[in-house]
Design brief:
By secondary structure, the protein is an alpha+beta fold. The chain has helices at about 30-35, 40-60, 115-135, 140-155, 170-175, and strands at about 10, 20, 65-70, 75-80, 90, 95-100. The chain is globular.
């Protein structure tokens, strides 16, 4: 007999036109709690929202999908031809652009990823970093870009890539394990 697939996640109505899924319980432990406890500057909160909206619109305009993760107050997007995500994904502002491979060259809906809850806590910590540091998060994006260029050169030389997040202080404080890093 063929196993039956799991049922789709329960859906709740949304006033934004996006499908809203019943939220997972909010989790925020360790460094996540430390980032959450820091008072937020309204300018940084605005920057986080705008940067996230730009990232979300990029994914949607390039054929991807997004939903709002109610419990953590962030957008989660995937698919399409957006080049914003690297490895398993990248958080820009309050938007996580997922790029979790499905094994056939495409990407999966992040809710189907086996480690979804820890991953969302990891990405939520990045949103808190954006809310706390504001334009200081440009350093995070530059770190990502530097390592991506080094890995591109190593790949061209047929050498193994370096660990993207293993030395990155932003990834370390968001929990390497929850982010799926193998250091």
């Amino acid at each position: 007999p063929t196993p039956t697939p799991p049922p789709p996640p329960a859906k709740a109505p949304s006033s934004t036109g996006h499908t809203a899924y019943i939220p997972i319980p909010k989790t925020c432990t360790g460094w996540c709690q430390a980032w959450e406890a820091i008072p937020k500057n309204p300018l940084n909160l605005g920057l986080t929202y705008v940067a996230g909206k730009v990232a979300m619109n990029d994914v949607l305009m390039k054929g991807g999908q997004c939903y709002y993760e109610n419990s953590h107050g962030m957008n989660v997007c995937w698919g399409g031809t957006s080049t914003l995500a690297h490895r398993g994904g990248t958080t820009i502002g309050n938007t996580f652009v997922a790029k979790i491979p499905d094994g056939s060259g495409g990407v999966i809906d992040p809710r189907k990823y086996r480690d979804y809850v820890p991953l969302i806590e990891h990405e939520f910590t990045h949103t808190l970093q954006w809310q706390t540091l504001g334009v200081g998060m440009v350093d995070y994006l530059l770190w990502e870009a530097r390592v991506a260029v080094v890995n591109w050169v190593l790949e061209d030389m047929r050498l193994p890539p370096i660990g993207m997040g293993c030395g990155n202080p932003y990834e370390i404080s968001a929990s390497l394990v929850k982010g799926g890093y193998l250091c």
